[in-house]
Amino acid sequence: MSNHALLEKHRQLIVHLKERYVLSTNDLKVLEEIHTHTINCVAFTTEGSFDANNGEFYPQEIRGNYKIRIRFQKNESDPENTIYLKLIF
Fold this sequence. Notes:
Blueprint: H1 3-20, H2 25-34, E1 38-44, E2 49-50, E3 57-58, E4 68-73, E5 81-85
Antiparallel strand pairs: 1-4, 2-3, 4-5
């Protein structure tokens, strides 16, 4: 896949997340910042939550945990970064 096609795929994913979920202003800014990076994995859950401290998924709702996890790289040679997003209900 060409770099342009990959960036377009990532842009579409960001648009989908913004349309599907209600996110905080800060989380929306984070999505805008990473849209040009390589997105390796997006995981989201309707039941359960992600713990940002240890990266684990828990099948139960835990107050303060997150619903969306995105793993990305700024450049191919960079280490993978992970961000977590909360939904606004």
